[in-house]
Amino acid sequence: MSESENENNIGQFTLPETESSLFHRKKKFIFIIVATLIVITIAITVSVIFTKKAKPTISPTTITIDTSATETTTILTTSTDSYLTTMNEWSPTLSVIKRYEFKNSDFQSMVTVDVNEDNHADIVIGDERQSRILIFLNSANNQFNDEIIYETDIIMSSLFKADMNNDNKIDLIGISGGPNAAINFLYNTGNETFYRRKVIKRDPRIKNIELVDINQDNYTDIVIVYSNKPDVYIIFNMANEDFSNQTKYEMKYMINHFKVLNINDNQRFNLIVAHEDQNVSILFGNYNQSFIDEVNYSTKSLVHTILLNDIDSDDNMDIIIGNYNFNFQIVFGETSDKFYQSVVYSVGLYNTFLRIGDLNNDQRLDIILGDYATKKISLYFNVGNRTFINSTIYSTNFNLENAQLVDINNDGYMEIILIGTDSIISFIEILSIYS
Ligand SMILES: *[C@@H]1O[C@H](CO)[C@@H](O)[C@H](O)[C@H]1NC(C)=O
Ligand SMILES: *[C@@H]1O[C@H](CO)[C@@H](O)[C@H](O)[C@H]1NC(C)=O
Ligand SMILES: *[C@@H]1O[C@H](CO)[C@@H](O)[C@H](O)[C@H]1NC(C)=O
Ligand SMILES: *[C@@H]1O[C@H](CO)[C@@H](O)[C@H](O)[C@H]1NC(C)=O
Ligand SMILES: *[C@@H]1O[C@H](CO)[C@@H](O)[C@H](O)[C@H]1NC(C)=O
Ligand SMILES: *[C@@H]1O[C@H](CO)[C@@H](O)[C@H](O)[C@H]1NC(C)=O
Ligand SMILES: *[C@@H]1O[C@H](CO)[C@@H](O)[C@H](O)[C@H]1NC(C)=O
Ligand SMILES: *[C@@H]1O[C@H](CO)[C@@H](O)[C@H](O)[C@H]1NC(C)=O
Predict the structure, then answer these.
(1) Phi, psi of 94 (to 5 degrees)
(2) Neighbours of 15 (CB within 10 A)
(3) In whole angstroms, what is the distance from residue 120 CA to residue 141 CA?
(4) Which of 113, 171, 241, 261 could form a disulfide with 270, with the two C-beta atoms 3.0–4.6 Å apart?
C-alpha cells in the first residue's frame, strides 16, 4: 500500500557499561546486608517524609458483585455469590522504596524489560513532553542508574515490548498517534546498543496495536487499529526486520481497545474489542479475513484496559476489563472457547488504569486499579472462586498515568512501579508490599 513506507536505521545509541553479574555474585552477602539496612533506613525516612501513605485495612467482606449486570453466553451456572474470606493474615503495607523526580517531562507510558540481560528488570518510560524515551537500568538493591535518554523525533504515546527479530532479545516498540503516526522499533542488540527503524503510516492515525504471532510462523506480527477508520489491520513480520503491507479485517465499527485471543490456526483468530461507545465484543475469526460470530457484553462505562489471563486458574483464558467507573469486569472463559460468563465487581474507586499480578505470592493473579485525578491506587486480592477482596487504598501526590507490577529487586515479591506527573514534574515511585 502506498501509505506504507519504511525508513531504516534512524538512530543508534549506546548504553553505559554496568557492573558485571560476577561482581554481583561476589558481593551478594554484602548486598543483602546493605539492602536490609537501606530498606530499613528508607522505610524510616519514608514514614517521616510521607505522612499519609499506606493505610492497610483488610475488609472482612468481599466485593459486592453486581449480579444484575451479570451476563452469560452459556447455560453454565457458575456461582457469582461472594463469600467470607480468611485473608486476615495478609495485611499488606505499601511503602515507598524509591522515588525519582524529573523536571520538564511528562511520563505517560512505561514498560519493564531486562534491557541489558543482567536478570534485573529495567524501566523504560515514554516522555510526552520531549519526544524521547528514558531507560533506567536497574543496578540491583533498588537502585537505578541515571536515565539513558534516547531522543526520538516523535512523541511515542505508547510503549510495547517484544522480540521482533527472533534474536532472543526483547526489543522496544513505540507508537505515535496523530498526523505523524508511526511505529518505531528499537532493536536491542544485547550489546548495550539499540538501533531504530521506523515504519511510517502517513495517512491513518494509529490508535492502538497488539503484538502477536498471527500466522504462526514464530515471528511477532503487528495488529493495528486506527482512530480515523474502522477495521483491523495486520502487518506481518517477514523476518529480517522486514514487514508486509497491511491486510485488512473488515469491521463495522470503530475500535477503542482490543486484544487478540485464541490463535489456533494460521490467520484465524478471535478478537476482544472495546467499542468507542463503551461495550465489549468477542469476535470469532474466520479464515477469509473476517469474523463470523460476535458476542456483546455491556460495560458500565468506556473501557480503558483489556487484559487476557487465566484469573480463576481453570486453564481457560479470561478477559479482564477495566473501565472508568466504580467497577472492574471479568469475562470468564468456560470449558470451551465459545463460552464466557461476565461478572462485574463493584469497587470504591473511580479508575483510569488496571494492572494484574500476583501481589501476595499465592499463585493467584490480583488486580490493582489506579486513578489519574484522585492520585490513588487500590488493591484487590484474588482469593479464588472468582472472588476478590477489596484491600488497601494507597494515595500518592501526583497524577497517576501508569503502573507496572514487577519484582524489581529480586526478593521474590512484586513491586508496584507508578509513574505520573504534577504539572511539569514527572515522578517514578516504587512501592514495596510487605505483609
Ligand atoms: C506493498 O505495496 C506496494 C504498493 O502497492 C507494492 O509496491 C509492494 O510490492 C508491496 N509489498 C509487499 C511486500 O507486498
Ligand atoms: C557492539 O558494539 C560495538 C561498539 O559499540 C559496535 O561496533 C558493534 O557493531 C556492536 N555489535 C553489534 C552486533 O551491534
Ligand atoms: C515454531 O516454533 C515451534 C516450537 O518451537 C515449532 O514446533 C514450529 O515448527 C515453529 N514453526 C515454524 C513455522 O517455524
Ligand atoms: C467469509 O466467509 C463467510 C462465511 O463463509 C462469509 O459470510 C463472508 O462473506 C466471507 N467474507 C469475506 C470477506 O470473504
Ligand atoms: C454488538 O455491538 C455492535 C456495536 O454496538 C453492533 O454493531 C452489533 O450488531 C452487536 N452484535 C450483536 C450480535 O448484538
Ligand atoms: C451497548 O451500550 C449501550 C450504552 O452505550 C447500551 O444501552 C446497550 O445495551 C449495550 N449493548 C450491548 C449489546 O451490550
Ligand atoms: C472497599 O469497600 C468499601 C465499602 O464499599 C469502600 O468504602 C472502599 O473504598 C473499598 N475499597 C477499595 C479498595 O475499593
Ligand atoms: C468455592 O465455591 C464453592 C461453591 O460455592 C465451594 O464449595 C468451595 O468451598 C469454594 N472454595 C473455596 C476455596 O472457598
Answers:
(1) -95, 125
(2) 19
(3) 10
(4) 261
- CB-based contact 284:292 (threshold 8 Å): yes
Ligand 5 proximity of 253 Cβ (cutoff 6 Å): yes
Ligand 1 atom nearest residue 238's Cα: 13
Determine the length of the chain.
Answer: 435
Q: Which residues of 166-199 are buried (b: 16+ CB within 10 A; e: fewer)?
A: eeebbbbbbbbbeeebbbbbbbbeeebebbbbbb
Atom 5 of ligand 8, nearest CA residue: 79
Ligand 2 touching residue 191 (CB < 6 A):
yes
Amino acid present at 65: I
Please return the burial class of 25, using the count of CB atoms within 10 Å of its CB with bins 0-12, 13-18 and 19+: exposed
CA angle (337 as vertex; 226, 335 as ends), nearest 5:
150
Say yes or no: CB of residue 218 within 6 Å of ligand 3: yes
The pLDDT tens digits of the residues spanning 93-149 come to 899 999 999 999 999 999 999 999 999 999 999 998 888 999 999 998 888 988 899
Q: Does the CB atom of residue 1 touch ligand 1 within 6 A?
A: yes
Substitution candidate for ligand 7 out of 58, 59, 66 with most atoms within 8 A of CB? 59
pTM: 0.81
- The mean predicted confidence, pLDDT, of the chain is 80
Q: In what order do the strands lie in the sheet with 193-201?
A: 4-14, 193-201, 182-188, 171-176, 158-162
Q: Which of 66-70, 236-240, 297-301, 407-411 has the lowest mean pLDDT?
A: 66-70
Q: Are 123 and 139 in contact (CB under 8 A)?
A: no
Nearest CA to ligand 1 atom 8: 1
Residue at 336: amino acid letter: S
State the residue for C-alpha cell 513506507.
5
Residue 381, pLDDT above cutoff 70: yes
Ligand nearest to the CA of 278: 6
What digits encode the pLDDT tens for the residues 146-166? 889 988 888 888 999 999 999
